Amino acid sequence: MIQGIKKDLRRVAGKDKAKVLAGFFKTGKGEYGEGDKFLGVIVPEQRRIAKKYLATPLPVLQKLLASEYHEERLTALLILVEQYKRADDKNKKIIFNFYLKNISRVNNWDLVDLSAPNIIGDYLFTLSKVEGLNYSKKILLKLAKSKNLWSRRVVVLATFTFIKNNQFREILDLTEFLIFKQKEKHDLLYKALGWMLREMGKHDLKVLENFLNNQASQLPRVTLRYAIERLPEPKRKRYLASPAL
Fold first, then answer.
1. Cα separation, 190 vs 146, whole angstroms
2. Which neighbouring-strand residues pair with 218?
3. What is the pTM of this model?
4. Which of 8, 42, 200, 219 is paired with 60 by a 20 to 30 Å CA distance?
5. Closest by alpha carbon to 159, among 208, 192, 131?
6. Rounded Cα gap, residues 24 and 77, in angstroms
C-alpha cells in the first residue's frame, strides 16, 4: 500500500513545481523549513490520492510521516483526517493519540493547518463537553509550552474548532499565554494567532474589540494586522496607532 501511494505521488510530480514549493516553504539553511524536500505535487492531487487510500493502516501512515518528502507526509495526514471524520469515538481517540505521538513529523505550516483543527481541535472540543474545559486546556497548555515551533502552531490551529463553535476562551487565553508569558518570537506563530483572532471576530466582533481595546498596544504588529484585517478602516487605523510590540 505504501508503495502504491508513493508511486501515485511521483506519477503526478513535477521538478519545476518542486523547486517552487521548496522556495515557498522556506527550506533554505536557517529557514523554518530547512531540509524539507518536495516531489512537486499540488494539494488537490494529494487529496485525490488520499481518497484512494483511505483504508491505509496507521503503521503505514507512520512510515509515510517519517518520509523526508513533504507531500508524502501531507498525504498521510490527509488520509488521517478522513479516517478521523469517519471514526467512532474509540477510533477517534486512537487517531488523536497517534497524531500526538507523531507530532514532530507535522513539521511545516500547511501540514499543521490542514490537520490540526480537524483532529486535535475536534477531539479536544468534543471531549471538553464530557470531561470539562480543564481537560482540554491542560493538553492545549502542554503543547503551547513545547519548544517545537510546529507543536505550538498545532495548538493555535486547534482553537479554530472551538472558535467555529463560538467558544473563544481558548484562543484568548492562548494568545495571552504565548505572547505575554512565553514571550513568543516566531513570525509564523504571530500570524497564526492573528488569524485565529480574526476568525473569532467573524463570530463575535464585540469579543474581538474588547480584547483589542485592552491588548492591542501589547500585541506584535503582525498579529494585530491579521486580527483587524476585516474591521472598518477607521477602526483599523485606530488600533494600528497603538504602539504595538
1. 16
2. none
3. 0.92
4. 42
5. 192
6. 20
Distance set, CA 42 to CA 45, 49, 65, 115 (Å) = 6, 11, 18, 16
Look at residue 98 and give its three-state secondary structure: helix
Using CA atoms, how far residue 245 sits from 129, 178, 183, in Å, is 36, 14, 11
Long-range contacts of 233-239 (CB under 8 A, 24+ apart): 235/209, 239/212
- Polymer length of the chain: 245
Looking at residue 90, its amino acid is: K
Question: 69, 143, 46: which is closest to 103 by C-alpha?
Answer: 143
Conformational region of residue 106, where left means phi above 0, alpha means psi within -120 to 50, and beta covers everything else: beta
Given this model, what pLDDT does residue 87 score?
Answer: 97
Contact 108, 148 (CB under 8 A): no
Separation CA 55–CA 101 (nearest Å): 20
What residues contact residue 245 under an 8 Å CB cut-off, 6+ apart?
Answer: 218, 219, 220, 221
CA distances from 97 to 53, 80, 123, 149 (A): 21, 12, 10, 19
Residue whose grid cell is 507543536: 151
pLDDT recorded at residue 131: 67
* Residue pLDDT tens, the chain, 245 long: 889 999 999 999 999 999 999 998 888 888 888 889 999 999 999 999 999 999 999 999 999 999 999 999 999 999 999 999 999 999 999 999 999 999 999 999 999 999 999 999 999 999 887 766 677 888 899 999 999 999 999 999 999 999 999 999 999 999 999 999 999 999 999 999 999 999 999 999 999 999 999 999 999 999 999 999 999 999 999 999 876 54
**Residue 223: partners with Cβ closer than 8 Å, 6 or more residues away:** 175, 179, 190, 191, 193, 194, 197
